[in-house]
Amino acid sequence: MYQNKYFVTKDSGTYSETLETYGLAKILSHIFDNNKIDNVNIKIKDEGAYYSVSSNINITEKMVKNTNYFVFPYIKIKTDKNRDLSGQIIYYENEKEKRDIFKKRRDEIYHKERDKNKQARLLAELEKPHPDFDIFSKIRDPKNITGYHKILNNVYKNRKQYHLILKEILLLYSLPLNNEENVKEDLKNLSKQYNLNFDKITALQIFNPHQGKGVNFPKSNSIALSNISSFWIKEYLKIIGIYNSMVIKDIKVSNKDWDTKYYVIEPFNIEYTRLSTIYKNFKPLVVGNKPFKMDIIAILYYTKNLIEFLPEYQNMRPSFSKRLNPQNLVQGFKTAYQKNMGQNKSIANIGYLKLPKFIEIGSYEEGKKWIKILNNHLEIMKQIKEENSSTTSLLQHYRQFLSAGNWDEFFEFNFDYASLLTEDIDRKKTDKRKMYLKTFTVKNLREVFMTEERFKPILESQGFQNIAKAIRNSTIGAQYAKVKGDKRFDVHYGVAQNLKRKSPYKRDLVEYLSEFIALYNAETARYVEKHPQDFTSGKVRATVKTEDMKDIIELIDKYGPSVVGKLLTAYGYALERKEEITKNSKIK
């Protein structure tokens, strides 16, 4: 049991054992801290059938004997008359009041202050609620708080013999197949010998989501139907683990009804201290109350933070020792969706959200590039309101692309987003439906698409680039120009939807593009005829050449009409530099 590597057996296929793993890592860290041992590196690794938690220094019997008891926060509610309290005490009503005041003042700032910089400054001055209030608010539920306090009490009331409990914890996790029965027997003997007393507990559903009824798993890896053990030591570690890995968000169903979603960060091969640091930075960033958008925000922000906290990135290394994908460190999030059934709450879905597979980083510059791309995607996603079936479907497509790496889902998102963007640009500022949607930049979009080998020849084609720019100039480019008072060229609506309909078939796509280009060139020629001075000064958009159309037909023949049409839509509704769009400048 005194070793440098311990194991948590996977039983349920949910985040239950993930929480247990975080708790075990925290306990090992607590041992080293109590013994004032520096330069300790604790690492969590997913090894298939189990997680391992290892350190570069062996745990010894002496260290265990020198370790003080460890408990999680005690959550005290109004009706709690207990005076023999342990560790950190959280007065729930006080924390709730702080949270409510913060939310009220934050909403007032958003409503009254339109200047983004001043808004940010005012928000920064507000007293923030406790970072773990999301956890406290669920624990204080009558069905949770009793069990929570019982587990805490099992440690606190036996704190003088905590080293014996700690020894059994290490024994329990000393082998890949955790020997629970032997440890339970040991605890019985210790109870008699040292007059220890352990309350029996019931596993709490929020830490053991597979125990809920009505579970389904369209995004799950697996699920076990049998109940997991309610052995209090395992539950003790799970509760410790939530304070370093779990994010809980309320989901708005209606003005009166709210469900709950649980996110637990799923490590693959990473240091525990880095996980804890990222968690503290990441947790406040997950905002909102709609499920699909929140999933997306969580994935994008965590991926960004993971890059920012890479030691090689922080040291601005021009070249890393090896190329990294986010999933090499953290796989994503294990999730559970809890439905509010009135008096009862039931787990309705257990899911798994993966971090993007298409991102790979091998240098500081590449890290900067991907952070810029992720920021661009965050700007776009934050503005989309998940308010009806069309925007929900759109966000669902994007989430599937981001988490599952399905390019067809991204193309479907682009088709729908092009229509939504077109509508939004035309809406007046007084229209409450206006979202002020952002666009992808051509440069950032290209970087994402270039991660897929089969797209590269298409994107590098000059004909493809020129026709995509013609689409841009006729659609959102012309719209933005019109908003600024430049009405030189007509706005062509419905191009994205036409491309979606025509893309499955070569003949239909070629005919549509031929007609579109003919109309585009004719409009340009008419304008030049009336304003020749603009042509000589280079302020007029260039016409699409015969060679460009020849290039696109060759691409369609070689790679198929579907992929070419989808890429044209994505590129055609992305923006280049703002000054280029404003001027509708010619293709270079």
Short key terms for the protein model shown above:
alpha+beta; four-stranded antiparallel sheet; 10 strands; 588 residues; 25 helices
Can you describe what's shown?
The protein is of the alpha+beta class and 588 residues long. The chain has helices at residues 16-34, 61-65, 92-112, 116-125, 133-139, 142-156, 162-172, 180-194, 232-242, 272-282, 291-308, 311-314, 364-383, 389-404, 407-426, 442-449, 456-459, 462-474, 476-483, 495-502, 506-530, 532-536, 546-559, 561-572, 578-583, and strands spanning 5-9, 42-46, 50-55, 74-76, 89-91, 246-252, 258-267, 269-271, 330-340, 345-354. The protein has a domain at 430-583. Helix content is 52%, strand content 11%. A four-stranded antiparallel beta sheet has the order 1-3-2-8. A hairpin with a 4-residue loop joins strand 9 (330-340) and strand 10. The longest helix has 25 residues, at 506-530.
